[in-house]
Amino acid sequence: MKRLLSGNEAVAHGAWEAGVRVAAGYPGTPSTEILESLAKFPHVYAEWAPNEKVALDVAIGAAYAGRRALATMKHVGLNVAADAFMYASMTGAEAGLVIVSADDPSMHSSQNEQDNRFFAKFARIPCLEPSDSQDAKDLTIAGFDISEQFDTPVLLRMTTRVCHTSTPVEVSADRRQVKPLIDRYPRNPAKYVMVPANARKRHPVIEHRLEDLARYAETFPWNRVEMRGTDLGIITAGVAYQYAREVFPDASILKLGMSYPLPQKLIREFAEKVERVIVLEELDPFLEDQIRLMGVKLWPEAVSYPHTKSIFPLIGELNPAIVREHAQQAGLLPQSQPEKAGEQPQATPVPAGLKLSGNGHTDLHLPARPPVLCPGCPHRGVFYILHKLKVPVNGDIGCYTLGVVPPLNAIHTTGCMGAGIGVAHGAAVAGDTERHVAVIGDSTFFHTGIPALLNVAYNRSNIITIILDNRTTAMTGHQPNPGSGQTLQGRETQEIEIEPLVRALGIDKVITIDAYEVEEIEKTLKRWVKEDGPAVLIAKHACALLPEERQRYVPLRVDPDVCNGCTICFRIGCPAILKSDQLDPKYHRPLAEIDPLQCTGCEICARVCPRDAITFRDQALQFWHEAGNS
Amino acid sequence: MTAFSPSSLNIVLTGVGGQGTILASSMVAEVGMALGYQVKKAEVHGMSQRGGSVVSQVRWGKEVFSPIIPPGEADVLVAFEKLEAVRALGYLRPEGAVFADPHEIPPITVSSGDDLYPDDDAIQAALAQKTSQVYWVPGVDLAEALGNAKAANVVLLGALSAWLGHAPERWLEVIRRRVPAKYLELNERAFWQGREWFTSSI
Ligand SMILES: Cc1ncc(C[n+]2csc(CCOP(=O)(O)OP(=O)(O)O)c2C)c(N)n1
């Protein structure tokens, strides 16, 4: 049966059909839906781990125990899990182990761009690269088989356009045998205890394994030659294969389903069959460099250094327009735009006298629509106060990174998950005289914030850590975390409270305040800025988008007779607060107005309003009832 | 009505986070599959959820390779918000069709008073530079009249289905599959409203 599946759903389906027993991951765009969809299948255990390193260790343990296992993460997650990735290559496992890295070319939702195929080479692990959802499913299944055949973890490298594109997939309701491959957990220290003496013996084993894999690659069914014309041959992998087909319909193609290690013989034979061979790949010249090292003559022959990628851009994702443009610049395609294939529906002629700008972009100025903290977001108040206090703020990654945008402008550094606390500590111990603040979300705190805060406690720096505890992982779509009281598969569980955890780390100056209580938060921070020693404020309120919170929405209103357009409520950056057309008679400033469709009634604006011109929830509810609503 | 079955159709759908752009594009993709096309649907999740612009792309064809529609090659643009219609105009081919909801959602840059929402004349002029086939479908108004503005996206799909000259069945089957039972009746009615709007305004 064919179903329309995203690449992520297809990986989940493939893993299930392949009999996966345990899957673990940490959310991260564009990987998140793999585990979310797999969690719904029967007879699979799936969990969100606090971070990617833990997730990978969990998957490795399951594979040691003879059960097929999957670990999922976004590209930067593999940086966090790299330590586990490296030892897993050394030990291998008793059952199939597939690790999914979802890369994000163009950084649609990431802090840096990186090509994780290099991790495969780094660790001597085979790398599989799907180019659509069918591939994603098939290569997931193939990945488990390769993993068992060669006693190696397998890296399945996806990219945003493969993860989040839906294409038809042949799916099956049949599932492989799920019985454990072994009777008893291995007692095999020479293979599984990586003390130096054992590790030294394992290293040559994995180098031999790589040679075996390279031989296997020659006949791997997803390394496929498609012969068409012989003028041009294209070696490609991943989504770039689709662009190759679209832009060069007549070219012959070598599509590599396995981008590491490469099938040397197959590549040479292909190169000999065509007049010129080029490589078309997204991001780094991963294939191109290896193929040149083999001595295969690629076109163009000369490359520059240190940037060895020849025809197509190194930065950002590709698309057919970019591929065509660069192919034209390189002289591979004629300059004129080829006609689009297929008939055009309803081609009414362009009315005479209307000028069309070349690329169809209009000259009209369009106001930007940047992402912002949602109306009712419990993170808003803290940033409003930090902005007022003018302290240096070291941020972290999550919805709350939006505290950087105007008018809040309240974050000064953000690197990777868990970085803010360590960076603030570093600035403080360096002798920077300002009082440094670190801001971190609950999921990020559980991810990598805990050891950083332990360091603050242990080495006693003067930083203030603010934990924005909205009881969920909001940024990536509200995945439960250790603070949510629920697991990925919907089981009730221990809800981890942050305050006792912080105390246990050795910090006594810790307080939990409702994130909407802006006056209380301001008073506390103002006091702490003048005091010494580590301090932790937990600003706690559930994310306004969670179902229970949505039930509490009460739109507030501005009393136009009391508001004098002082602009203070505009400074909290809430999308529900609008400038009205009405002007204050004395100062001729626009009065504030609240959009009842967007307002949740969080009251942050009401609390900061110096004239009490904004109703609180109780009053708003009263108006509401008096107006005859129930 | 303009019944035709093109060998391929590139459709860009756009709106503001929370308007149901992605669900609508899933439905368009499934209709294409039901009609026997090869189909690809591409979208970007992530930051766009927080009130930003959302763009989703659907391609129907005999053979579809790239999931991304190159600039100037979309045959149809479906916009659930007026400003976003203009923002996505670069995707549209000259004389492609636009289905746009005249509904206005001011971005934060406008509501904060730092920028201005372009006026209707400017928006219409921008669209007219590219195409004369612009259909202003009052999706939010019609859906609100049915009791829930959230069904606006399906009103626009109704209009699109009528423009394509499709019989309603395939579309309704997909709506039944994709919409939770609780909202099914609302969405079916929204779909019919969109069709009726199109037939009566042509
Ligand atoms: C190593 C790594 N893993 C995953 C991500 C993706 N990611 C970005 S923010 C975030 C979660 C943030 O959750 P939380 O700290 O609770 O903040 P919230 O979004 O709820 O405000 C995740 C998973 C990432 N950027 N880096």
List the defining traits of the structure above:
heterodimer; A: 630 residues; Rossmann fold; 4 domains; five-stranded parallel β-sheet; 22 helices; 20 strands; B: 202 residues; alpha/beta; Pyruvate-ferredoxin Oxidoreductase, domain 3; six-stranded mixed β-sheet; 43% helix; binds thiamine diphosphate
- Residue share in β-strands of chain A: 15-25%
Count of separate structural domains of chain B:
1
CATH homolog superfamily of chain B: Pyruvate-ferredoxin oxidoreductase, PFOR, domain III
Largest sheet of chain B: 6 strands, mixed
Greatest interface and its participating residue counts: A-B, 69 and 73 residues
> Segments of chain B where pLDDT lies below 50 for 5+ residues?
none
| Average residue-wise pLDDT of chain A | 94
Q: Roughly how many Å apart are the termini of chain A?
A: 49 Å
Predict the CATH topology of the largest domain in chain A.
Answer: Rossmann fold
Strand and helix layout:
The complex is a heterodimer of chains A (630) and B (202).
Chain A: E1 2-6, H1 7-17, E2 22-25, H2 33-38, E3 45-48, H3 52-64, E4 69-74, H4 75-80, H5 82-91, E5 97-103, H6 117-123, E6 127-128, H7 133-150, E7 154-159, H8 160-163, E8 165-170, H9 189-192, H10 196-217, E9 223-226, E10 232-236, H11 240-247, E11 252-256, E12 258-260, H12 264-273, E13 276-280, H13 286-293, H14 320-329, H15 380-389, E14 393-394, H16 419-429, E15 437-441, H17 442-459, E16 464-469, H18 498-505, E17 510-514, H19 518-529, E18 535-540, H20 547-550, E19 577-583, E20 590-594, H21 604-608, H22 617-626
Parallel strand pairs in A: 2-3, 2-4, 4-5, 5-7, 6-7, 10-11, 10-13, 14-15, 15-16, 16-18, 17-18
Antiparallel strand pairs in A: 1-8, 6-12, 9-11, 19-20
Chain B: E1 9-16, H1 21-34, E2 38-43, E3 53-61, E4 74-79, H2 82-87, E5 92-100, H3 108-111, H4 120-130, E6 134-136, H5 139-146, H6 152-163, H7 169-178, H8 181-201
Parallel strand pairs in B: 1-4, 4-5, 5-6
Antiparallel strand pairs in B: 1-3, 2-3
Thiamine diphosphate binds next to helix 4 and helix 17 of chain A.
